[in-house]
Every structure is written in structure tokens, then in C-alpha cells.
Amino acid sequence: MAEAAAIVTTLIIATAVVAAAAFNVPAITFDEGYAPLFGDKNIIQSAGGRTVKILLNKYSGSGFISSDIYYHGFFSASIKLPSDYTAGVVVAFYMSNGDIFEKNHDELDFEFLGNIKGKEWRIQTNVYGNGSTSRGREERYQLPFDPTAEAHRYSILWTRTNIIFYIDDTPIRQVARNDAMAGDYPSKPMSLYATIWDGSTWATSGGKYKIDYKYAPFVTEFTDLVLHGCRLDPIQQLPASQQCRDFEAATAAADYSSLSHEKRAAMLRFRQKYMTYTCCYDQQRYPIPLPECEVVESEKDKYWKSGDIKVQPKPILRRHRGKKRGQARNRAVVETNGQAVA
């Protein structure tokens, strides 16, 4: 049994390492690209700055921000989330320019919403352009692994024509720009953020379950920090599109900027198995679907008019009884091309 567990652990670690290298983008240290945003005492760097932990305790949350602003690119980090009871805890890895454009900001989010003990973390992606939060383009998913057991890579590709969210090397969502989206497509330079904070008023069952600080500190670990974008020079008077012309051409040629037949198939499998809410099937908010949505009638039948899926996916995290003192042992399921590896 111990030998089998070691094999599973090796598979999980190997998968994370492969995913970290899959995109062939350079990782940086914390000081090379980021600075503290708030809660400085709750930000802990490793020696060399390759790993950074942000903490939430009863005194403060914490977060960091990129030292530069970016106009398009590929942005990524490997993230390990807090375990145990995490109701009310919100972890976010996102792009935004809300500090510059208060009323018409753009935003691209990975948002992680904690849960009560024994329940899985939920993950949400958001796309906002020009202050379009009233036309929020949100989606929620379960995960095909335990995000608290090992770090997994979460990536955002943002170009002039395309947005792709990745988990490890699997695309989970694509938003292709079209004319009908107009200003709803993020189009202004943004910074990168990572934060952890108390969302007790809304994050878990609409605020029914609050943070219990006896489980604090809640610790999120970030590694493999990637800021592979076009850094804008605030001194230059050239428009962003001109400053970033060469970089955008190189980005467009990168593997992660387009979806091959195999990648698109992997994305569809993920969405069919793990998506639990999508704005594209939310008929209550959007009687006329948002312009970028591709409505599939057979898939639409799986969702209520609220956009929530009718039958929730089965939890991925499985518990097995250990030999010693009957302790439970967690095992994450590693998926390769849609098939589980035990």
C-alpha cells in the first residue's frame, strides 16, 4: 500500500513539473517582477525568491502586484491552496487596471473560493472589459485534482484577439474577440495581482459560512512566476499597440496562443466534466446570449435557466483508509487526455 501511494505521489509531482515546463516561458523571482501590495508581514519569500507565500490571519490578508503594467501576453503561476476548513477564504490571481480606471476598468480573473471542511475548493474565471461587471462573463468549475495537495499551474493568455485560461497545460476557456463585444473585451494595459482575503459576507453559500480563524493562518503558495508580457514604458509617447507590435507578433506565433484540434478537444472534455456554471446559459441574466457565446442546444439542456448545472460533477478527491490507526489518506486523481491514472 505504501509503495502504491509513493507511485501516485510521483505521478502527481511529475505531472506538475511537466505542466510547469509545457509552455517554454521563463520564470522569474519575486523581486524581478513583483512588489508587496498589502499585508507585508503576511508575505513570505523563500531564499532566492522563487517561491512566495501569502497569508490570511485574523489581523490581515495579503497580496502582491506586478512592478510593471502590461499590454497583452502570457501570465502564469503555480499555486497551492490552503487545506482543511476554508469557508469564506478568497484567493485571486488576476489582471486588472482598477487602480487607474476606477469606473471603466478591465479585469481577467482566476478566483478561488474556499469551502467548508470536506468540500472542494471552487474556481471561477471572470472577463470584464471597460467596467462591464454588470455584464459579467463568469464561469465556475470543479477541479480534476486536489488543489491543496500539490501546486498546479494557472495561466492567462491575453492578446488583441483572444483570451485563453489554462490549468496546467489544458485550456479550460476561450473568449475570442468579436465586434459585437465592443468595449466589453479588455483593451487597456493591466497589472498582475495575487491576493488572499476574507470574503465571509458572500464567498461560501452566499455568506452562510464564515471564516473560522482557529484554522488560520490560511497559506497560499506561489511558484513558477511568469510575466511574459509587453511591459509598457510610461515615458514613451507611442500608443501601446505600437510599443508592443513586435512582442505581439512573437506571442501570436507561440503554441499557447492558438488551440490545435487536440487542445480544443481537451478543453471541451474539461468543460463537459467540470463546468458548473456559465454565463452563456444564464437565461435569467441574459435572455439573449452574450455575443461571444457558442450555444450548444444539447449541452444547454444540462443547465438550469440560472446557468447552474443540473447535476453536479462527482467530487474528484477520494479518501482511502490507511493502515496506521485507520487514518484517512487523500489521493488526487491525475488526468491524462481525459483518463484517470490511479
From TrEMBL:
Residues 18-222 form the GH16 domain. It is found in: Secreted, Cell wall; Secreted, Extracellular space, Apoplast. It comes from Dendrobium nobile. Keywords: Apoplast, Cell wall, Cell wall biogenesis/degradation, Disulfide bond, Glycosidase, Hydrolase, Secreted, Signal, Transferase. One of its GO terms (cellular component) is apoplast. GO terms for biological process: cell wall biogenesis; cell wall organization; xyloglucan metabolic process. CDD domains: GH16_XET. Its main location: secreted. Catalyzes xyloglucan endohydrolysis (XEH) and/or endotransglycosylation (XET). Cleaves and religates xyloglucan polymers, an essential constituent of the primary cell wall, and thereby participates in cell wall construction of growing tissues. Belongs to the glycosyl hydrolase 16 family. GO terms for molecular function: hydrolase activity, hydrolyzing O-glycosyl compounds; xyloglucan:xyloglucosyl transferase activity. Contains at least one intrachain disulfide bond essential for its enzymatic activity. Residues 318-328 have a biased composition (Basic residues). Residues 1-22 form the signal peptide. PROSITE patterns: GH16_2. The active site is at 107 (nucleophile), 111 (proton donor). Its EC number is 2.4.1.207. Residues 318-342 are annotated as: Disordered. This is Xyloglucan endotransglucosylase/hydrolase. The keyword Nucleus does not apply.
